């Protein structure tokens, strides 16, 4: 079970992500969690499904290095043995794809 401080930190970043999605013009909301936490909400949802959010104070440096703002890479495609492919991209680029897909091709 997560500590109270850990839960507060998680909730803070889940809300931050939901607000960032809304600012990007993507309809987003948080839903009631299942289980023994009545009244609490979790990760944000968009029309395509749930968006899992993770925060690490000094984590993900490898990914940030691959996709720095000055880098020409559009996305990073990652795979480990016995797992499927994952695609990681900058938020702004991903938000444009989501908006195009949920609004019939963009503006």
Question: What would you say this structure looks like, in words?
Answer:
It is a single chain. The chain is an alpha+beta fold and 107 residues long. It folds into 2 domains: 1-55, no CATH class; 58-107, no CATH class. 36% of the residues lie in helices and 19% in strands. The chain contains 3 helices and 5 strands, in the order H-E-E-E-H-E-E-H. The protein has helices at 4-23, 61-66, 91-102; strands at 29-32, 41-46, 49-50, 75-78, 86-89. Strands 1-2-3 form a 3-stranded antiparallel β-sheet, with helices on one face. A two-stranded antiparallel sheet has the order 4-5. Strand 4 and strand 5 form a beta hairpin. It is globular. The mean pLDDT is 85.
* Proportion of strand residues: 15-25%
Distance between the termini: 44 Å
Helix content class = 25-40%
The SSE order reads: HEEEHEEH
The number of helices is 3
Quantity of strands, as a count: 5
Query: Could you say which structural class the secondary elements and strand pairing correspond to?
Result: alpha+beta
Which parts are unreliable, with pLDDT below 50 for 5 consecutive residues or more?
none
Q: How are the strands of the biggest sheet laid out side by side?
A: 1-2-3
What form results from the Cα inertia axes?
globular
Tell me the domain tally.
Answer: 2
Query: What's the overall average pLDDT, rounded?
Result: 85
Note the main sheet.
3 strands, antiparallel
